[in-house]
Amino acid sequence: MTSFGKIQNSVASFTNENTAALIHVNLDFSLFRCEPLTEFLAVGSALSVQRKEEAESGQIHKTACTLGFLFHETLPDASNLFKAYGLRASEILSRSDINPRGTASDGPFRDYIGANGTSIWAAATSGEPSIAVHLLACMLARAFDAKTAISIWVEIVRERISEIETLIQNGKVLHPNTYFASKQNISRAELAGWDLCAREWLRRADEYKAKERRQFTLIVENINIPYTAPGSTYQSVLTTWTRSMRVLNDLLNNLPQQASDRAILLAISSWHLFPSLLVFQNKTTNVNMHDSLFPSSGILTLGLEYKSHKSKEPIRWSLALSHLKYYGDPIRVRSNEDVSRVTMPQLWLVALGSIFRSWEITNSGISQAICWFKELGDLLGSISPRDRYPELSWMFALSEAARYYLALENEESIHGLSLVKYGWRRATTFFGQYLHCYPFFMLADKGVIQALMEEDDTSRGFTYIRSNITSPANRANRANRSCISFSRKLGGNLSYSELTTIDPIPCYVGDHKREEISLKKHRWIFIYDKKRATTTHTESLQKRKEYIESIGEVCHILYNNEDMPDSMHAPIRKDTLRWNNPPKVLCGGLEGPLEFKLEKLESNMTAAGFRRRTKSDKPPKVFTLWNSTKGETHSVHRKSERCNINECRSQLKDPALARNVVEFLKSFATPIDTSQYIQPETQRCSVNEDYDNDDKRKNNDSGEGEDEDEDEEKDNDDDNDENDIFANQSSSLPFIIWNNRPPIDWIRSIRALEIASILYHELPGATISLKVIELELCKARWCPSMSARNDSSKSSEVKVSAKECFNRMTRENAFGCIAMFESGHLDIELTNLQQAVALCTENSIFVAGIMLSDPTDMSAGPRIRHLVGSIGQTGTVLLVAPLQPRIKSVGYDPMAVDHKNFAGERADRFQAVSMHLSFTEWKMPLDWESTGEIDNEVFLLESVISVQHNGQWIADIDVLGLEKNNIDMFHSNCGSDCTTVESLDLEEVIRIDTWEELLDHPPTIGVLRAKGNWIALLAAISILIQQGKDTAVVLVADGDRACWNCLAKRYAFPEPHIPQFIID
Question: Does an H or E element contain 449, and which?
């Protein structure tokens, strides 16, 4: 390793006696600085003034020097690697989208904006060994989470110091810099800051080299090269680090190399230096990574001399840590370098894969399933816009994810498919543990498709039941074996019923069998009126018959009660249907009454007769299967005949099915609270008896139901209008779907993902940890209420659009959501977020919009802004204001304030105002329940937002006061020629043009003139709220024009009461 630049009085060797003589020498490494390599000069120029100063003389510089001095004698010479890394870092920081500059719109965060290259410049100004230590920090940050990486740093530093002490005791020769470094106190907090800088740098560099990283990852994920470094944690880390440096340095020196250790692949990914690859697998592949920093012969060979890795688990770097917890045995940890960050559209691809896993889609069927979702979206969009059907919005979102994938090309498409398959493999609990949605939303079931082809609702139910039962083997002479009934109450004394055969039966004429004309399905229809022996709705029944015959069935009308099944003159058990005068065509030559026994429809089909407990809902229309009490009958079970994916796709393209499919999906997507339903032990055919009788009997003991039924009887005593009898009320869809709707928690999970998507759409550049797929979204604390206003039923949750749920999100909800998706695992209690004005994590700052926007902005939703930057604090940090922010005291100079009369002109007299952010030493961990762990992850940090004018401090403000106090806002509603009689007496109004005039305000009306200056408006209102004057403030929200007469009119009644402070 080369020396540390120009160090005065350094020596080439140092004896034990020399060392002992310098025991009491105390060096301040923050004072040491060497000239950086030329390749790093652009890094310093790209940093903000604050970060550059910290890198050159702050704590991070001291840490870089100390670590470099501590390890420099263990490191190889890698000058080519350092120069190449300097060029790559300079290249990354030159991109304005990767390293943005702070502007006035960033408010107090202006100085914290941009990529955090602080540790790179600190290392560059501390010498080449410090650059090497920065490279190790990048490797550990890539491989391990922050807690683990910090513990590794603590362990290797202590082991290195112990090693140096042993060498001194054994009389070995040491460089004085090594000795001095070993005597420095390197705290855990300093090592955490060093790790944080590397972690934040990786996020920005990964975005810049996203394409190369994806390509490299796709290549090496199937290369079975293990981590080979042996020994203790210290030995393993040191070997891994130095071996990777040698290999990359040789490649940059135009020397081909072979990867014998997976650590080399980790280093390439961590340092963003991508050599060309020669890959040996089933065939030899030369992969040109097009990295201009590597010479033509600098090729890395992969895949030689290694047998296939038999385990399905990915290869990991495994270490034992003694400094992860305060107490206990060393804990073995494994690297997690495959934990990627994705955008929200990419996360939806993972969600697709999760759904495919629950649907048992095979690997070969994934592409076709994606196309099915795209075509489902095309069908839904052809019927109506997305916002018309809020209950289907998540289906639109899934179809948009499919469309997003299908638009990808080349490597992007390969990466997209890998994300789908990642969800297919790993995201098994994302939408709820053990919760699944029916495959293809039942649209792959042949029975459902056949039912949806029917235009008539009742026919759909009959068709679905027919398709889901198995007929007896002997089809001869079994016309009387089974039938299906449908019934619904019409109100009052009327009930309507239909009975149909399951299979086509031969037609007979008269008493004797004649020539069989054809095999057709038969249907009997009738209206039972318990007050009349015959029906009076003959015209309606005739119209119904004509329709049934138009679809190819034979229809019979039963006019007389005695011809109807289960007549009141012959009461029998409720689970039995008796037909005293059955039609001869149904008897099949048999004589006498027919008896049928009710069969429960099992498996995917509902048991007939589920009914609501709630009195407010009408009983559902009932489909029932009846089997003959004699002979061989139909077997009732689900055949599970499913179309293949290609058939499913073709069905979605059938325009004749489109509207029925949409109505079916609306019903499918509406969750049912099954606790509100009961299954009676038995169920009548419901053709001659009021359905409410069962409920009335059940409620007699409690006194419920009787009054309601009596009132209904009175209200509906007259016959119903014939035009309403056969109205299509969609009775079949709930019946078909009943047991197959997605569980409510599954719906909540995917709606939560929808809401998060809308939030992240407002946060350009924000990414998501893929670890989030290990959570159950339905249990997230941050999710806002999804129920309709004044309706807490589960079915109402899908009737509220995701956009409306997003608009309900509070600042706490939004920060909770961001914390979860940023970290991949945090689910913070909302009460801990009530005072947070910003959330900071690694290279992202998420700020409450109220802090960075005009107070007149009343946009819906939480209004969070995402800034690329860092405040230099480890973990997830929630910024909170002091409990009692300070305000500048009013002085005793009578000449400091000169209030002048307001003449009505608007202006901005506060152009020199600015806001600044600083931090106190109050910092409280929120995850203190993690007993035994040394490092915490979530903190509250007291943060001071200071208002300054021309560099002079005015006040510290708490902007959340605007949320807690409703400031009156005024909008002019007149034209340029206002005719308002009232007027504002300007002689009694003063103007406020300085902060002193605001703080030392006389007891009269004053206009603070800060037109268009959102910082001044925000500061002034916050100061007045902190002074308890919020009720005496009105904020003028007009743009170019404000009508003072209209303002006077607004506050004219019941008597003039214009607020004391007019903020314009």
Answer: helix 446-452
Cα(755)–Cα(771) distance, integer angstroms: 19
Contacts of 971 (CB under 8 A, 6+ apart): 1037, 1038
Q: Give the Cα separation of 222 and 280 in Å (integer).
A: 11
H/E stretch holding 501 reads: strand 494-501
Residue 31 pLDDT grade (very low, low, confident, very high; cuts 50, 70, 90): low
Q: Indicate the range of 103-117, 502-516, 779-793, 806-820 predicted with least confidence.
A: 502-516
Q: Taking a C-beta distance cutoff of 8 angstroms, is the pair 68, 126 a contact?
A: yes
Which of 760, 768, 838, 762 minimizes the C-alpha distance to 106? 838
- The pLDDT confidence band at residue 615, using thresholds 50, 70 and 90, is very low
On the question of pLDDT at 780 being above 90, the answer is yes
**Would the pLDDT of 16 be above 90?**
no
Q: What is the DSSP letter of 949?
A: E
| Separation between Cα atoms, residue 976 and residue 540, nearest integer Å | 65
Amino acid at 554: V
pLDDT surpasses 70 at 551:
yes
Phi, psi (rounded to 5 degrees) for 73: -80, -10
Residues 134 and 198: beta-carbon distance below 8 Å: yes
State residue 17's pLDDT score: 45
Specify whether the backbone of 491 is left (phi greater than 0), alpha (psi in -120 to 50) or beta.
Answer: left
b/e string for 905-921 if b means 16 or more Cβ within 10 A? ebeebbeebbbbbeeee
* Structure tokens that stand for 676 in this block: 């509100």
Preceding omega of 1054 cis (within 30 degrees of 0): yes
**Integer Cα distance of 621 and 1048 in angstroms:** 63
Q: For the ranges 267-271, 318-322, 602-606, which has the lowest average pLDDT?
A: 602-606
> What are the pLDDT digits (tens) for 65-83?
999 999 999 999 999 999 9
- Closest C-alpha among 519, 478, 522 to residue 498: 522
Per-residue pLDDT, 474 = 44
φ, ψ for residue 595, nearest 5 deg: -120, 140
CA 579 – CA 593 distance, rounded (Å): 5
Q: For residues 732 and 464, give the distance between their C-alpha atoms in angstroms, rounded to a whole number.
A: 9
- Does position 758 have pLDDT exceeding 50, yes or no? yes
Instruction: Decide if 42 contacts 122 (C-beta within 8 A).
Output: no
Determine whether 860 is exposed, middle or buried from the number of CB atoms within 10 Å of its CB (0-12, 13-18, 19+). Answer: exposed
Strands (E), 591-683: 594-599, 611-612, 622-628, 635-636, 677-678
**What is the chain's length?**
1064
Query: For residue 976, how many other CB atoms are within 10 A of its CB?
Result: 6
Instruction: Give the count of beta carbons closer than 10 Å to the beta carbon of residue 847.
Output: 22
The full 3-state SS of 388-418, as one line of letters, equals: HCHHHHHHHHHHHHHHHHHCCCHHHHHHHHH
Chain centre to alpha carbon of residue 811: 16
Query: Could you identify the residue written with the tokens 């002034």?
Result: 1020
Q: What angle do CA 634, 638, 642 make, to 5 degrees?
A: 130
Q: What angle do CA 494, 498, 503 make, to 5 degrees?
A: 170
Q: Is the pLDDT of residue 192 over 80?
A: yes
pLDDT at 293 over 70: yes
Share of the chain above pLDDT 90, in %: 37
Q: Which helix (H) or strand (E) holds 447?
A: helix 446-452
pLDDT band at 351 (very low <50, low <70, confident <90, very high): very high
Which distant-in-sequence residues (6+ apart) come within 8 Å of 259 by Cβ?
223, 225, 247, 265, 300, 301, 302
Cβ neighbors of 925 (< 8 A, separation 6 or more) are 936, 937, 938, 939
Structure tokens of 636? 């009732």
Say if residue 14's pLDDT is above 60: no
Higher pLDDT, 451 or 398: 398
